[in-house]
Design a protein that fits this description.
Elements (H helix, E strand, L loop, with lengths): L2 E4 L19 E3 L12 E2 L2 E9 L12 H14 L8 E5 L5 H14 L5 E7 L2 E5 L9 E5 L12 E2 H10 L4 E7 L13 E2 L8 H7 L13 E5 L8 E5 L2 E4 H12 L6 H19 L8 E3 L31 E7 L2 E4 L12 E5 L13 E9 L2 E7 L9 E7 L7 E5 L4 H10 L5 E3 L8 E4 L5 E5 L5 E5 L4 H21 L10 E5 L5 E4 L2 E4 L4 E4 L12 E2 L1 E5 L3 E8 L5 E5 L13 E2 L5 E3 L12 E4 L4 E10 L2 H19 L4 H20 L1 H9 L15 E11 L1
Parallel strand pairs: 4-5, 4-6, 6-10, 22-23, 22-24, 30-39
Antiparallel strand pairs: 1-37, 2-12, 3-4, 7-8, 8-9, 11-13, 12-15, 13-14, 15-29, 16-17, 16-21, 17-20, 18-19, 18-21, 19-20, 24-25, 25-26, 27-32, 28-29, 31-37, 32-36, 33-34, 33-35, 33-38, 38-39
Length: 707
Amino acid sequence: MARHIELPYTRNRSKRWIGLALPLIVYCAGASTGFSQAVISQEGGAKRALLIGINEYEAVPALRGSINDVETMREVLESRWGFPEANIRVLTDRAATRAGILAALEDLVTTAGPRDTVYLHYSGHGSEVEDLNGDEENGFDQTLVPQDGRSGSVRDIIDDEIAMFIARLQAQSAIIVLDSCHSGTATRSFDIRARSVPRDTRIELYKQAAKTRAFVPAMRSRFVVLSATAATEEALDGPIEGRYAGFFTHSLAKSMSMAPPGATLAEVFAGVARELNRLQAQIGRVSMPEPQLEAPPALLDQPLFTPLIRVDATAPVVQEPRLPWLALLPLTQVSGRLEKAALLGAAAGSKWAIYPPGETQFPPGAALGVATVERLDGRDAIVSIETGGHPVDPGSRVVALLPAPAASMVPVRLMAMPADREARVKQLLSRDVVKIVGANEPARFLVDASGSELHLLTADGLHIVGRFGYSGGATAADLTRLLHRSINVNEILTLDNPASRLLLAAHIAGRAPLGTRGVTVVADTQAAELHVRRPTEIRSASNSLQLEVRVNADAYVTIIDVDPAGEVNLLFPNDYQQPDYHRDGAVRSGEPALIPDSLGAGNRAGFYWDYSPPSGVDTLRIFASTDLATANTIRRRVSAMRRGAAQGATGTRAIQNGVIQLRRDFVELATRDIVLIRDQGLVQPGSGATTVAPDWAATSLTVQVSE
């Protein structure tokens, strides 16, 4: 174990333009008083969106997740945020040429009205070019690369051109998301790619067009900016749970999906960071690109989108759905089809809660049944239906309940190496743990044996997870340990509740999840770096773990850890804590809970979390539940996982069995109220039932432990 419980009594970045540097969100704050008139309106205006995604470029390397990005965002905007289908325009690949993008922007500017909300999204390559009008401190304009960019005399679309369009936009608010980067970072992987191409050196093309450009200094004060990375980091494109996407767009879509009505920009930003932390643990990276937010402080607490209201008193009340939903089309009594399910992350084995037609709030525990994805059929999913024998009405709605189970084997790709070394590496990789994949299949790790050492790398090829010799048994055992750990972490990460009403936040004490660099708010997506505590060393934040946890409701907190050896440990609550210290793991709504409360002698908690060997990566999974029974269920299952490993079952098998049981427990919670209603003859929730079902949520942290 990398951490043991010890009883205290026994011993600037440079400024850049608002968006094309990297993915961002821009608000037109206080813009002056604009696709078809919306049926659903806010303050008499319309919601409009322009979504641009490019995978297949004419003259630069292809991407794989950009079109999935915009399809997912379209679904989230429609089903969660009330954007009418007729008001969403999509440009992909050959339609997204320079001329096509500029024409669509012009159409958006001339159509949007003064009370409208506008959402503009770009997923594709970014780059940069020499600044010709002196408005960039670093001397380079940031650019978007259109589908025909870098071919013939086709220029990139520079930030000044985008700024000129936005300056003319007569909308109440505008949100611009650019999932691209200009840093020129390269990866070594076929799967995970940086969304950038080298700087455009064809400066004469830009000089010829310079007379059409304008400097608009007033723009900066009107915008709120949310960017996915720092200027020198890469925006990543790669496989996430079996589907290619931009890491930033995936995280933004998930945050926007789970955010409550009226969610603020700051809340959505924090949600992006939470999902990036989960992805970081899932794919084995010790760091992720850092989302960054530039905004006047007063705007951080403004809603992401203006809530929908009636245009006139006689119009029906339109209620925004709490979650994005899919239509369930029954095929038989026990099977059905979910249209466009892949856009919201459906994969074989994922669970979806079934609600009646017209449901918008999707209360926890009140699902009519559960749909399990059996297979994907294009963008749709074929599901099996469990409702206790009760029929499912056409038009029933489903929302995500649990992600798909983790794969039982780790996909690994071998990089180019001599044939004799490849044969040796295959001998070292455990056939019970590893699935060697080809170039067209997603990989979680890469293996490079071209030098004097064997390297296990993250899927992008940029981070070395482990270095090994060719000594045989020891190397095989060390490799197997790391790969088993990856399986165990991914098993634990499938315990996620996208439908939760709880907002759970956790971070290393003294290291706030959101920091500042000048006027920029930065999300913390880097692994905390601690080291093993030496026998004579004073206990400190560098060698002993302390967490700060906050929940938006009274809840019971459970903290588990997957250590560098792959073992799963129940850290909190534990047998050593004092009776008056967060009894049963209880925390109060909105109040930060320090666990343990102090690293000094005589703390109230009754324990410390000191780091001990081996070094490596720790993954923390923090759960919060509104009822003690659910918390105790999680704790019992984790304890059973450890007992199973100690009694001779492999640790991985014991963890897999425990997670399977927990998934069943969580599925039962989803339909708990309906079972009570049927058994007791009560009315449906919302029509008089008073039972409050349990709710739960989870979040993750990664810690890098050195000797």
